[in-house]
Amino acid sequence: MQILPSTAADPQVGIKNVAKSADNNVEAGAKYLRLLEQKYLDEPGISPTNKVLMAFAAYNAGPTNLRKFRRLAEKSGLDRDVWFGNVEHGAARIVGRETVDYVGNIYKYYVAYKLAQQRQLLQDATTSP
């Protein structure tokens, strides 16, 4: 994760020395992601998965842009509470492919790791006495 020192210094994040410490940088990034979810995505209509995906979009493009993405999706007749196939179209039109690819890559690796974990658990279950 990479977070700007100015973002990490925000009182709601409050982590120092992110430029010199990978641990502090990751902690600040995780804390900022949680803040984005709580502050901008605290709506009952958004599933937990979509909250995380849109928090990543806000992390990458900024929360103001996320609002724009969601508004454009809604104006286009799409679901403002669903990232894939909906809000991502607004992101692509407003800021280009960077944020769309960023969120997509994170999700791709999440799915790959989850499948690998399931496979390992299945192997362990079949080889255990």
Structural topology:
Elements: H1 5-8, H2 22-40, H3 48-61, H4 63-75, H5 83-95, H6 97-127
Helix pairs in contact: 2-3, 3-4, 3-5, 3-6, 4-5, 5-6
Distance between the termini: 41 Å
- Tell me the number of structural domains: 2
- Count the helices. How many? 6
Low-confidence stretches: none
So what's the oligomer here? single chain
Order of helices and strands: HHHHHH
Report the mean per-residue pLDDT as an integer: 95
How much helical structure, as a percent, in the residues?
over 70%
Shape: globular
Note the main sheet: none
Please count the beta strands (DSSP E, at least 2 residues each): 0
Gyration radius (Cα, Å) is 17 Å
- Class by alpha and beta content: mainly alpha
Query: Hey, roughly how much beta strand do the residues contain?
Result: under 5%
Question: Which terms summarize this structure?
Answer:
129 residues, mainly alpha
Q: Overview of this structure, please?
A:
By secondary structure, the protein is mainly alpha-helical. It folds into two domains: about 1-40, no CATH class; about 45-129, no CATH class. It is built from six helices and no strands. About 25% of the residues are buried.
